[in-house]
Amino acid sequence: MTIPQVNVNGRWLALSDIPVHTTLLDFVRDSGLTGSKEGCAEGECGACAVLVAQPGITTPTEWVAVNACLLPAASVDGQEVITAEGLGRADALHPVQEAMAVRGGSQCGYCTPGFVCGMAAEYYRADRDCTHAGQDHGPNGFDLHALSGNLCRCTGYRPIRDAAYSLGTPPAEDPLATRRDEPAAAPVATEVTRDGRTYLRPRTLPDALRVLAEQPETAPVAGCTDWGVGVNIHGRRADRVLAIDRLAELRELEVHADAIEIGAALSLTEIERKLDGSVPLLAELFPQFASRLIRNRATLGGNLGNGSPIGDASAALLALGAEVLLMDSAGRRTVPLADYFTGYRESVLRPGELITSIRIPLPLAPVTAFHKIAKRRFDDISSVAIGFALDITGGVVRRAHIGLGGVAATPLRAYATEAALLDRPWTADTVAAAQQVLRAEGTPMDDHRASARYRAAMLGQSLAKLHAETTEGAVG
Amino acid sequence: MTDMATGTPLSRVDGLLKVTGGADYAADHNPPGLLHAVLVTSTVSRATITGIDTAKARALPGVADVITDFGGVKLPFPAGEISFFGQPVAIALAGTLQQAQHAASVVAVRVTEKPAVTSMDDRQAIAVPSEEVADYARGDADAALKAGPIVLDNSFTVARENHNPMELPATVAQWSGDELTVWDKTQWVQGTGKHIAAALDVPESSVRVICPFIGGAFGSAGRTWPHQVLAAYAARRVKRPVKLVLTRKQMYSGVGYRPESRQRLALAAGADGRITGIVHELKTETARYEAYSEDAAELPKMLYTSPNVRSTYRLVPVDVSAGTFMRGPGFVTGAFALESTLDELAERVDIDPVELRLRNVADRNQITGTPFTQERFADCLRRGAEAFGWARRRPPKARREGNLLIGMGMASAAHPNYMSAASAVARINADGTAVVASATADMGPGTATAMSQLAADGLGLPVAKVRAMLGDSTLPTAPMHAGSATLASIGSAVHTASVAVRDAVVRMAVLDPASPLYQADPATVTVHNGVMSAPGHGSERYGDVLRRHGKDSIDSTQTWKPGDGKKASSYEFGAVFAEVSVDIRLGLVRIRRMRGVYDIGRVVNPKLAHSQAIGGLVGGIGMALLESTARDHRDGRIVNANMADYLVPVHADVPDLEAEFLDGADTASTPIGVKGAAELVIIGVPAAIANAVYNATGVRVRDLPITLDKLL
Hints:
The complex is a heterodimer of chains A (about 475) and B (about 700).
Chain A: E1 5-8, E2 11-14, H1 24-30, E3 49-55, E4 61-67, E5 80-82, H2 84-87, H3 95-102, H4 112-123, H5 158-165, H6 175-179, E6 190-194, E7 197-201, H7 205-214, E8 219-221, H8 225-232, E9 240-243, E10 253-255, E11 259-263, H9 268-275, H10 280-285, H11 292-295, H12 300-306, H13 312-319, E12 323-328, E13 331-336, H14 337-340, E14 341-343, E15 346-347, E16 354-361, E17 367-373, E18 384-393, E19 396-405, E20 412-413, H15 415-421, H16 428-439, H17 452-472
Parallel strand pairs in A: 1-5, 7-9, 8-9
Antiparallel strand pairs in A: 1-2, 3-4, 3-5, 6-7, 10-11, 11-16, 12-13, 12-16, 14-15, 17-18, 18-19, 19-20
Helix pairs in contact in A: 3-5, 15-16, 16-17
Chain B: H1 15-19, E1 35-41, E2 47-53, H2 55-58, E3 63-67, E4 81-82, E5 88-94, H3 97-105, E6 108-113, E7 128-129, E8 136-138, H4 141-147, E9 150-158, E10 170-176, E11 179-184, H5 189-200, E12 207-210, H6 226-238, E13 242-245, H7 248-254, E14 261-269, E15 275-287, H8 298-302, E16 308-318, H9 331-349, H10 353-360, H11 377-388, E17 400-401, E18 404-416, E19 422-429, E20 434-437, H12 447-459, E21 466-469, H13 486-510, E22 526-528, E23 531-533, E24 539-541, H14 542-548, E25 553-560, E26 571-583, E27 589-599, H15 606-626, E28 631-632, E29 637-638, E30 656-661, H16 685-697, E31 703-704
Parallel strand pairs in B: 1-13, 9-31, 11-12, 15-16, 20-21, 27-30
Antiparallel strand pairs in B: 1-5, 2-4, 2-6, 3-5, 7-16, 8-16, 9-14, 10-11, 10-13, 14-15, 17-18, 18-26, 19-20, 19-25, 22-23, 23-24, 26-27, 28-29
Helix pairs in contact in B: 5-6, 9-16, 12-13, 15-16
């Protein structure tokens, strides 16, 4: 094993002498690169965003923007990272920096380096083109969702959007553009131990399962979007951290005749782009799931492993009738997602067991929808999340799967509502009756996001909205 | 002159540093030997501290010290007691931030709890008069309410809000003998220096505070907070430089908030829409250990002609941390009640809301009776209505597009043009460059850029030759960077100093037999690109005369003082228009477009002013629809003390926004004719949105924020 090190802005920096629970943000800042900022320490504001060279989908390498505050520094062993300082200098500005400066995209300037990195990632996206202009896209194809995880409190965002929409395509000689044509750095096995704590990146899935079998208290991490929050906000300091996000076995997406199997360690962004709209319910979910910066790291395995009761992804996957594939050193098993959650942040997952993939049965239901009720358009936690997957043939409901998030201690299937719809005509009367049932599903609570009354009402309204959309063709 | 720097959309002079990550904020300083400090804060709202166990924390790797004794430090709350949830009780110091955080998380604080009251609505919370805002009456407002004929009498609430700038509060303190240098996030370097010196009982002259960049503050870095003092104290204790950065969570109780408020606004009017009486009864929450009042009572008293007004302001002391001013402090709160009520009145008397306001517009300050220096309130209303297409507004609930109800609303905005005495130095260098400096700050509006522009014109130099310096307590005296007062005050000082030093060089030239300008009348000398010339004389550069006199540079420090305001009242005015959509089924409110039209006197930099105004509109959208600091009054904890749950607007929440400034200059108030903008541009926004929501849905929401639940 070589000495852990990371290439930041073209310079290799040793990762061997830092405490295990040091974030990439603190590492780069302590290295003198203070352009990346801490704004929230939980991946909500994007002030810490940096670029990481990762295996790409349209080019061998892509520059992916991530929240440095959430990643263990050791997780970028062997990788290339670019910060705002590495993109350009005051006397040699990067085109993104120039656009931000000239268009007035920075006021207090604190969020600016993060915005610059998020914007640069989209600038270098090889399949960005002007044919995508329209809703949330600029005339240059810039997808505004690329900045959905960056908060600004001063400018009112408009000058930032103006800057983003003014960008051209990278010139041929741009070193970061040409870098895309070469493969990304291969995953390296990493072991960093300091102060009695260890960060471990195994080479293979069997290696990972062996570590988990021998030391079941080991914390497996993938995208680390929860690890970072645990460390920064909740003071968690696991003695052993096991990185599984680069294990090839967990990073495949396969379409079989009877199912789509999605590797547990693929990021949501990777899944979104690989599926490319082929699962409409998920295509509706992804843009509403947290922010691009989070989706660039977060995985379905992590989302289910963490068992959040709100779980936007769970609501969608429940509607799709998904199954969870689990594995430990003793073997494999498959659990329907509807049986997976057992309580608040609890599941059937055993110590030493990993989620390897999520299976979505085919064929897909013809009528699907994902409704997220939240106050903000981007980057918000749902008050209620509802996934629908219905088969309506000849005006009659032949199959109904409804997944709910935010209405109970776990995500859940709305079985009673499904029964109230099944084999009945898809009419206003059926829907009105089923709405009553749906309002009573779960045990919604009053909290600062919404009242129980509102949550229950929204469940009912959601079904009415779906009915209206399928019958009127209206999109509200 | 056609090539004035003032009035041009110059890009921010520090923009290049900001986009490349080179701007150094307080937390970016890492002096050698630095220790990271993390505060341990209380988890109850009222208690006596009986002990603090630090053994576990001290045993952790990298931990240098855990300080539990703040003895001798003057803090605003009593020692040994807990006065609010989140109060600093100990400081963990370690070599890395993660180590210090971990140490802080394992410090155990033992307390004897006492009954606490944290809600201003609690029956045990007793309202007391504000010492800062006196009761006010003119005429007999209660009699006017009895007389009617039109009477509206409603209650309004505004949730507590936190500033949530992107930058976390940060202090880096380094002692060198008895001298203290502090790199701090502060809107007032000299005030912070003074307050830290007083709290630690050291001479003011021994403390230097540096803050060239502020990552947004909106009022939260105005006064000096305990963490700033404690960082300096800890550094003295451990004899090493200390960096203390509050966490986002700690910000919610550590650097103030816009206090929660309750208002009764009762208004009487004739059928012609003329206001005959206003009763405004206002209450805001405040800390028990410290009173904070704000100017929420002013607009209902001041803005419209009403012969009868009665206004009272009460504070409700509870066991919470201290509040402070937050963008548009008080004014935005009072305007919400007043401008919502005017919207209701407009409907009752069937007069267009813009016309209704025009009928009640005052030409003079209704409190003092003094005329406004510049009265363009009515112009803002008319211009806004025209530019926004207000005539297309329909009656409530009359406009529908698919599942969306569409509505328009508007509101007035006004704010005093605050000004303070301020000093600046201007220096002309023989090499043709110049420096202008003041101990002011730039939390985002572009103070340094505007200083450069004003100095360039005062000096007769291209703006590229002028460098502005600020954010250092050793520079000439400046007031707090707050209240929208900076440009009017500092800008006037910069202008005065620039003209003074220009005149000094001109005097040198006209008195110098070697100068082509010898014996020219100084009043006829003009300076362009650093070249002085006068009719009938030759010309020469500043540098030429300075070098002949053996000088590398010449400078002048000047203090500008505002007038006493007794003859005229200087106010900024505006009108805000909003169009919203509301999803019929889900109650989701989205802003479709907004426009603000403002009278802010002379606009020094239209690009920066526009950005500032749009930012204010977005701040107002947050206040109207999203922002609320939620608390659990069982123990006083803030339950959404993070950016995931305390919602501020994101990119996609922001639609087409337009801001427009009326031409003009308020030269009666300052030599540069500017008025403030930053506070004004949030005032009226929540009311305009609430009025638009009413127009869309027929549902009147009098409680901010307008969340989904309230539209069911």
